[in-house]
Design a protein that fits this description.
Chain lengths: 99, 147
């Protein structure tokens, strides 16, 4: 009863819900699958686009934490140039002041 | 697509042997949750690794302590599709995830543990969160607070 989750042959974050801060300014929250030559592969992804979002990013993430991930896309590959810092949703803190 | 029942049975048994009643049909769910009285926990079971490695062991630990919800229920996501969907309708404000745990008091959700709060956590950590919620919302103190 260790509480550890084993995913043999996968990266540590495989299957874990993460926040990916995109270089475009968008934020992507979903289950991390893998990083390959095409980019970061994610499942069941919610997307925050500051150009159209109703909530500032930090509030949006806080809402996802409380009510769960409202899926916008079932499957996403973020190109390497878009994929910025990757953090577990439970650990994520807003590092920007722009919201 | 549901897995073969023979494969799933040990996962069901791991929960039901704790005294948690499994809800397999829409009618089961409505009979259990429809009245919306008292405290009820709904454990959304699943075949995924974090259910096996963390969620079910955490539930086992949490239900060993004193304070528990009055009613303990479980549905199996990906297996009992209609029953799971119906159960989720009682906490529809929360996005579907599995495994997950909903704690309701008089029909209102008072605590929710999402899959993202389970992934990568130790069973003991999740159990501590559940026990704190049981104590807060199902213990004598909660009865005093309601009066």
């Amino acid at each position: 009863m260790t509480g550890h989750v084993f995913h043999p042959g996968h990266e540590e974050l495989h299957g874990v819900t993460v926040v990916v801060e995109g270089t475009s300014g968008r934020t992507w929250v979903g289950r991390y699958h893998e990083r390959n030559e095409r980019g970061v592969v994610m499942h069941d992804v919610a997307i925050h686009d500051p150009a159209i979002a109703e909530l500032p990013r930090a509030d949006w993430v806080a809402r996802l934490r409380k009510f769960g991930v409202a899926v916008n896309e079932r499957f996403v590959i973020l190109p390497p140039k878009e994929a910025g810092p990757i953090t577990r949703l439970s650990d994520w803190q807003d590092s920007s002041s722009s919201g | 697509m549901p897995y073969h029942e023979m494969m799933i049975k040990p996962m069901r048994d791991e929960v039901t042997r704790l005294g948690v009643r499994e809800l397999r049909t829409v009618a089961d769910v409505d009979a259990a949750l429809g009245p919306g009285e008292g405290t009820a926990m709904v454990f959304v079971n699943s075949v995924c690794g974090c259910a096996a490695g963390a969620a079910r062991p955490a539930l086992t630990l949490a239900l060993q302590q004193g304070v528990k919800p009055q009613n303990l229920y479980t549905v199996f996501a990906g297996q009992d599709l209609d029953a799971t969907a119906r159960a989720r309708s009682y906490f529809a404000e929360y996005q579907p995830s599995s495994p997950s745990v909903a704690l309701l008091r008089d029909g209102e959700v008072v605590h929710f543990v999402h899959r993202h709060m389970i992934e990568g956590q130790r069973a003991e950590t999740i159990a501590a969160d559940l026990m704190a919620a049981f104590e807060r919302f199902c213990g004598r103190e909660s009865e005093v607070a309601k009066e």
